[in-house]
Write a structure and sequence with these properties.
alpha/beta
């Protein structure tokens, strides 16, 4: 694979899974253009593991459900050609085995993090304050180890002052992917779309 971006792939996908206490696992997939505007949105019906799956998969169940079951279904429904997919849910990274473009992990900021936003006057006009102005004191959830998923395949990169993880299996394209993501970060806040997805999933469940 050679990482290249054309007009046809000028879209980013954002995917996450919500564990609803009543309905089960619900996945959402939002595709944005490089202005942060929605192109497509897809969600799954609630998914619950049966008892046999819980026994047979054991602690490897989540990567199977999140990545192979929910992730693949959502991505297959997408008509737009995405240059990359970003997720804030580690277990979804398991879907990388079925794709030839990168699935990038974007860590969420922990609840106890202390936010110190620098003055907008000190920053260039084209920099987003939410994503760009995080200081070293901000605490990010690391890429945790998950049974049934080799997270060592993802390598940390610094994009717009924040850590993200890019699949190292695409080693010859690692620098190109990181460089392109840094360019897109000037117009798209990589953390914000996940909030949109969760709100959309919440509204979908209310209407169900």
């Amino acid at each position: 694979m050679s990482f290249a971006v054309s007009e046809k792939t000028a879209f980013l996908g954002f995917i996450t899974v919500v564990d609803h206490p009543r309905f089960g696992l619900v996945g959402g997939f939002l595709v944005l253009n490089l202005l942060g505007r929605p192109i497509e949105f897809h969600c799954t019906a609630p998914v619950k593991a049966n008892r046999a799956q819980e026994i047979l998969y054991g602690n490897t169940l989540k990567p199977y459900l999140f990545g192979e079951q929910i992730g693949q279904v959502l991505i297959r429904r997408c008509k737009a050609e995405t240059a990359a997919i970003l997720t804030d849910t580690t277990e979804i990274l398991a879907v990388q085995d079925f794709l030839d473009f990168p699935v990038v992990f974007v860590p969420s900021v922990s609840e106890e993090a202390e936010w110190e936003t620098e003055s907008r006057q000190e920053q260039p006009d084209n920099i987003l304050p939410l994503f760009q102005n995080r200081t070293a004191k901000h605490k990010f959830a690391p890429l945790k180890s998950v049974p049934g998923l080799s997270v060592a395949r993802w390598k940390e990169a610094n994009v717009a002052g924040s850590p993200i993880w890019i699949p190292e299996g695409l080693a010859k394209d690692f620098d190109a992917i990181a460089e392109q993501l840094a360019v897109w970060a000037k117009t798209v806040d990589y953390a914000e779309p996940f909030s949109r997805i969760r709100l959309a999933l919440e509204e979908a469940q209310k209407a169900a």
